[in-house]
Give the backbone structure.
Amino acid sequence: MQLTDLKWPEVQALNKDTPVVFPVAALEQHGRHMPVFTDSLLTGEIVRRVEAQLGKRVLIAPLQWLGNSHHHMDFPGTMSASPRVYLDMIADQFENFIAHGFRRLVMLNGHGGNDVPGKQVVFELRQKYRARRDLLLLFATYWNLTLTAPHTAHPGLKQTRMGHACEWETSMILRIAPHLVGDLTKLGPVEFGNPFEPASRGWIMGDRSEPGHIGDPHLATAEKGEALFQTFTAGAVAMLERVLSWDGKSWEG
């Protein structure tokens, strides 16, 4: 059920063990062939499918489209909250619903740049509410929740991991909004490379890609996109089923 559809007494009357899902994404450049709203479109579609399966068992907050995207700011059209501003903004979403009495809070993410601040938020809030043994605070990025390897979702998929405006993302946009996708025939692959792994290197998109994509978007098809949507939705639903079945106190889930 959608938070935006409810009146405040209806929210007040909900079981406070109802999982609250906070979708977060971004508005940022996605190469020369994809719309700047890509991450939000994809996350919104996954959340729509999740709600279709779980219905009133979960409460879904509005999608937060402003993300931590400073590493894309060299490309016009990108909008970004500064990292520390972003951390406070998403922390307050959790804080609001802790104040309303809810105990199972899940941030479902669809943008790689949100990953570090999102994990920091759930870590810091757990320290703040350390006396509470009944709180479950989770941050999860949808492509990391899959029950099977995403690249096995369709026999034609070539990429083995999420890129940026890549085969995976381009395929999913082709599935839900093909009119927003530009000419793929002139696009070449941009390799992921090895940026001093296993160290974590600070980077901006210009360090990695001149056109703004990473991966191989010209391989994208709508059929691959549908297979990926099904895989990512199944993973998100499985995670929320675990949240629903949590006993309210244990470490395991």
